[in-house]
Automatic annotation (TrEMBL):
Keywords in alphabetical order: Membrane, Transmembrane, Transmembrane helix
Protein name as it appears in the record: Phage holin family protein
Pfam families assigned: Phage_holin_4_2 (PF04020)
Top-rank taxon, per record: Bacteria
Presence of keyword Cell division: no
Transmembrane segments: 23-43, 49-67, 74-97, 109-130
Amino acid sequence: MVRLHEGRSATSRTPEAPVLKPIVYFLVMAAAMMTLSMSGVLPGFRVDGFTAALVGAVVLALANALLKPVLFLLTLPITILTLGLFLLVLNALMLWITARVVPGMHLEGALTTLVASLILSLVGMVWNAISKDDGRRHERDRD
């Protein structure tokens, strides 16, 4: 039997967990986009349907995975000078790029883009905190 860190065996992991986690993440982010769009809190942020929101969540994740690291390195001096606050601008830029690529996603204005990216970032942070797997669940299941 192959042993993993913390004394857990490789067979104690459920095969569904790695597959379901990103799917649920995309659904949560799409629901957050739809809620933000339908709530009227940000009139300049509009998503035309759940499909557009779901595609937007996937494209935003791809932009964050592929473009953001490169832009982070290019803007590192500005990020350091602003004590990290420039990362909020990078998040807004990723959302703006997503809205330009995805049909059915509309953003009007820089402030709307910045606030929408802040809200979606908070949703993502909460999701990561809730879905974090630190091994305690596996230990609890064994008992």
